[in-house]
């Protein structure tokens, strides 16, 4: 009996050791027979980043950023700089009307679900989740598994109708664009990581000759937004003393419906009513690039796309980087292709030997149709560049995340360069210029070069500006390339 107890203890001990080894990996033990040498920890499952749908991998590399030859259009020299960028994912095409409509419809349906849970519209509480599976209270949020009613009752019908307006003259019913507001939050990891912003005052300066005063006040800027009593979006940039990590959480509310009137506002004395009424709403244009979207709306789309993705990834979502607009350097690096050419194609001309144009732009004075298109064209109908990207020249110009300055690349770092400024509402309008790249369907040959820089105000929608998203890599370029190859084989 005593021997049985001894054997039992030995077995239990072996099982515990095996269990711990399974939790921490076989190389974690300091008694692994290596003579007490530090060999590092092992085990654990490496994160395999999912290949984002419709995106292509741009591997890390080097670029001589800027225009080499003197600009013949303005007769001035533009700065150049050797820069290096890390790898990233980039949309193969510009964001289309179809993809942006998904965003608009998601916002519409989120408002509708909120109203269906409101007692004023029937009060169906199943459209909101207020408890977890254990019955413990959670922050109320929408229940997307609950289907919208196919045959709404009277109260539900009122909720549906509250999202639409009727033109009093024509009698046409349409979605109330003024209600399509999207609220999102972005945590500013970069600002939070700055040494001057440490919560512990003794960590703010490593110079031991400096006497730290724990009562010194550190001021921070925080973006916030709310809807006032009249239903208007109010944006504020608050300057206040640093109090904790919540100070780096910025809140934004953006009306995300595209400005369909840009077609008539951009071109005076021009009959573009057809595009005003049809370009975004008519399914014929689903595969055309979305336009009339401001820089602020493009950022809101990136935030929504991120949250939409992360909800389906589970615990590993924390490793996935957010969708965002490309930096100006990333955009030019990706557009030039693997051979870093002046245009996204290898030929120095804008058309092939048989007269076919490589992009949708304005090849001649007033002759928009010479390249086969009048306005925008379907995305991806012209050949892609060596990175597998389409329409990096022409079709629509594209927003970047970079603030526009005359110094341009001369003011940038040579490692993952970015010039960023979050303009407050009260800032001078000139500080709200953002860099726009690629040229558009209405621009001449000079503007569609990969290095050509231009700008637009961040709140100004245009019929010739769209955007595409990028996402920083969560793993190395080589590992991401492996995953991309596997994904393409499955498709």
Topology:
Blueprint: H1 2-24, E1 55-58, E2 61-65, E3 81-85, E4 88-91, H2 97-116, E5 128-131, E6 137-142, H3 154-161, E7 164-166, E8 173-175, E9 181-187, H4 189-193, E10 219-227, E11 233-241, E12 249-255, H5 262-265, H6 273-278, H7 295-310, E13 323-324, H8 328-336, E14 397-403, E15 433-437, E16 453-457, E17 465-466, E18 470-472, H9 477-490
Parallel strand pairs: 14-17
Antiparallel strand pairs: 1-4, 2-3, 4-18, 5-6, 7-8, 9-12, 10-11, 13-18, 14-15, 15-16
Q: Could you characterize what this model shows?
A:
The chain has 491 residues and is an alpha+beta fold. The chain is 21% helix and 18% strand. It has nine helices and 18 strands. The chain has helices spanning 2-24, 97-116, 154-161, 189-193, 262-265, 273-278, 295-310, 328-336, 477-490; strands at residues 55-58, 61-65, 81-85, 88-91, 128-131, 137-142, 164-166, 173-175, 181-187, 219-227, 233-241, 249-255, 323-324, 397-403, 433-437, 453-457, 465-466, 470-472. A four-stranded antiparallel β-sheet has the order 1-4-18-13. A four-stranded mixed β-sheet has the order 16-15-14-17. 29% of the residues are buried. The model is unreliable at 14-31 (pLDDT under 50).
Number of helices: 9
Main sheet: strand order: 1-4-18-13
Q: Which spans of ≥5 residues are poorly predicted at pLDDT below 50?
A: 14-31
Structural class: alpha+beta
Hey, roughly how much beta strand do the residues contain? 15-25%
Helix proportion? 10-25%
Oligomer: single chain
Spatial extent as radius of gyration: 27 Å
Topology order in helix (H) and strand (E) letters: HEEEEHEEHEEEHEEEHHHEHEEEEEH
- Structural shape: globular
